[in-house]
Amino acid sequence: AHAFDATNMLLNAIEAVAVQNDDGSLTIGRQALIDAVGATSGMDGITGTITCDENGDCADPKISVSQVQDGAFVAIWQYSVE
């Protein structure tokens, strides 16, 4: 799930900064891409809403272990890094 959200975050940033050249190729500036990823705010992901902080950290500071019970994921342990 986190990989899916990270991929979508990267694709959104590429879409925001890519420049189409006259020959149809794309140019993606390295710093522009870094800045666009770090500026992610309020992105609806499948793991929740994703917002990067002023340091460009986009990770959720919570770690949890879930177990499938009666067909549903149930959190059985959580730790907050905050």
Describe this protein's structure.
With 82 residues, this protein is α+β, with helices and mostly antiparallel strands. The protein has one domain. Helices cover 30% and strands 33% of the residues. The chain has 2 helices and 6 strands; from the N terminus they run H-E-E-H-E-E-E-E. The chain has a two-stranded antiparallel ribbon. It has a two-stranded antiparallel ribbon with strand order 3-4. It has a two-stranded antiparallel ribbon with strand order 5-6. The longest helix is centred in the first third of the chain and has 16 residues, at 2-17. The chain is elongated, with a radius of gyration of 17 Å.
SSE arrangement:
Elements: H1 2-17, E1 19-20, E2 26-27, H2 30-38, E3 43-45, E4 48-50, E5 62-69, E6 72-80
Antiparallel strand pairs: 1-2, 3-4, 5-6
Helix pairs in contact: 1-2
